Amino acid sequence: xxxxxxxxxxxxxxxxxxxxxxxxxxxxxxxxxxxGVTRDRTYRRAFWQDREFVVVDTGxxxxxxxxxxxxxxxxxxxxxxxxxxxxxxxxxxxxxxxxGDQEIASWxxxxxxxxxxxxxxxxxxxxxxxxxxxxxxxxxxxxxxxSSIHGSGTGELxxxxxxxxxxxxxxxxxxxRIxxxxxxxxxxxSLLNAFLGENRSIxxxxxxxxxxxxxxxxxxxxxxxxxIDTAGIRRKKNVDYGPEFFxxxxxxxxxxxxxxxxxxxxxxxxxTEQDQKLAGRISExxxxxxxxxxKWDAVEKDSYTIYDYQEQLNSRLNFTEWAENIFVSALTxxxxxxxxxxxxxxxxxxxxxxxxxxxxxxLEESTTWHNPxxxxxxxxxxxxxxxxxxSQPPTIALFVNDPSRFNDNYRRYIENxxxxxxxxxxxxLRLLWRGxxxxxxxxxxxxxxxxx
Length: 452
Prior knowledge:
Layout: E1 5-10, H1 16-24, E2 42-48, E3 51-57, H2 70-83, E4 86-92, H3 99-109, E5 115-120, H4 125-133, E6 143-145, H5 154-161, E7 175-182, H6 188-196, E8 214-220, E9 223-229, H7 243-256, E10 260-266, H8 273-285, E11 288-294, H9 305-316, E12 324-327, H10 339-350, H11 356-369, E13 383-390, E14 395-400, H12 408-422, E15 430-434, H13 436-451
Parallel strand pairs: 1-3, 1-4, 4-5, 5-6, 7-9, 7-10, 10-11, 11-12, 14-15
Antiparallel strand pairs: 2-3, 8-9, 13-14
Helix pairs in contact: 11-12
Subunit structure: Associates with the 50S ribosomal subunit.
Protein name: GTPase Der
Keywords: GTP-binding, Nucleotide-binding, Repeat, Ribosome biogenesis
């Protein structure tokens, strides 16, 4: 990243994610009264005065416990600190100094970057001064009394912090936003790590490891890609209100803000009902899509296996039959490097615009070969002309005499003709069937708007 990085460090449940949300000006990190909610390191942009920087939210540090994810969380926090220009050590002012705080302080004292002690949960100025006094004992420097919830005291902390950040010029370069979506434990975080060649996300056979949507920017062949790893999406009835609930909401928001979705499937499980629902949502949101069949190395194969699997994809994921498929192994790296090539093609088609003349050539040829059926009342649909009205996804308006005279089969026929003759692989294609009454209604609305 071209902006300086500030690592947020501390024990579990001292308010690190709340502080990150305060500094970034958005509720993006998941906040919940449960230790260990944040596990991976997540990056958020922040600014103070005329300076812009990146804050890194990390999991709660515990040095004397080797259970579950704690060793992996420590590794993530240490990686974040190695990239940082400064660190904010968050402690709980209401609880006072703990043995865990002292252990972290001992570790931070040997780091070669400036560290600022933020004594959180000091909602009262009078009480806050008393709460911070004890934290001089940590030997790191002046403790700052703050309230992450209300924002009090954060200004004084940031005034001092930005004096220690290098001035780095940010270059705003275009990028492709890629959301990695799928059920729990299909290998989304392993796929992200395979892209990066490092343990950027915690990988565990325990489902639900990833909870925040994690952004990472990589560059390949001069192009920038923002990879968004997301929480595994289970069926709604199986999700309790809490960290997993918020994580799934972050995953759906990741679909909203991306250009292309990598829908990751588990090759061993095949296409499940939940995979079908996710494919339907991607199509509804109008996002480009690449279907990534992961764990292909774990499938016993013969000369027909890939064809049988391809047939299963086509029949069960009919919502995204336009998406390209690739069979990979994040564990071995098999064909992972080919994914971005397919992403580039999908994004190009997602942003593509076709001239009105070309669209009408396709329509003329299509209707010559296959005219709309005549209704029982002896009336026949007629397409006057078509034009592309937007992209991302490509959207074509077809002006007809009466939309009700075109059944679903004929509408699919026209869409297939556009795809056959113009491409649009990897992206949904929207067709708007506009009749004479609709056009007259739009003219009336437009005239009324001009009068106002």
